[in-house]
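Dock glutamine; give full complex structure.
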Amino acid sequence: MNRLFSDLPTTIFEVMSLLARETGSINLGQGFPEDPGPEDIRRKAADAVLNGYNQYPPMMGLPDLRAAVSRHYARWHDVTFDPDREVMITSGATEAIAGALLALIEPGDEVVLFQPMYDAYLPLVKRAGGVPKLVRLQPPHWRFTEEMLAAAFTPKTRLVVLNNPLNPTATMVPREDLELLARFCEKFDAVAVCDEVWEHVVFDGHRHVPLIALPGMRERTVKIGSAGKIFALTGWKVGFVCAAPHLMKALSKAHQFLTFTTPPNLQTAVAYGLGKDDAFFDGMRAGLQRSRDRMVAGLTQIGLPPLPAEGTYFLNIDLQPLGLNVDDETFCKQLVHERGVALIPVSAFYAENPVTSVVRICFAKSDATLDAALERLSGLRS
Ligand code: GLN
């Protein structure tokens, strides 16, 4: 067995979801919407299974979907990609990230990672032979500084992995910080792998700025997106990779032996979905923003005000300033057993020196579910 994987614990999302099921708790842990997702897009997928072609689609993805991804990013984020040479469809963003790491790292290459980080990154970097260089972010702002980057980048740096908007912190990297990171990538000749699956889930009129759109980054960035987050269909696992042809050459070779392709009916339905009018995307954001605001108000009212949240469908509570003297893991375990609410301890997103006072809450739920959870959480600070 490979030690790295055999020694790994089960992911915190699975652990908390299992605990939620066992205890009959309200699950605000693992991030998935309660809503079944847009009916017209699901119908497209069903229709494509019944009436469409169900054999292997092209390895790079259905031409219709690659064209739709290209049009979508031109329309929303002002970046243009050649659908034939710069866009690839993967079975979810996690496959895209795994493929990028396998394809772009040589053993011994250093990879800059920001903690808290999505729990898949570190084992994948290590399995690919990369040497992680960790930048530690902390509440309430979760921002990196020039000094932090200077300590992490070296002449051996090959890659930096950036998740923006950032899960679990619900923050967006400000433009000036993106510019700072771009300067480091250029100076050290590093490639940025950008996990931007939350690019559409941003609030308060913010617009996502992809790192690949910054001067000097077009040729050295791998941009990764996901239909699961855009359409609230997290089980579909349809990801998009956009990168310059010289990078795509290696990325496509990793993809061809990971999954090779992605179910054609889902690709057809996502191509249709990406073409929906602005009102659809604005409506999705508005609905989630309303849920966020409802949850922020409710949590504040019961004495658990969350940290500022600009994107993703998560909120975070820092227990320490609230005088709750308990670590996040203990807090989550107690909560699920004693109050019937499952959350995620943010320390699980750190590989070393974790912040242990923050818990993450998923608010992509119905008002009734959020209200029931608030009721169960009330009285924690008395
Ligand atoms: N992205 C989801 C989250 O952050 C979890 C995905 C998973 O469970 N693998 O909650």
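Observed: The first helix runs from residue 3 to 6.
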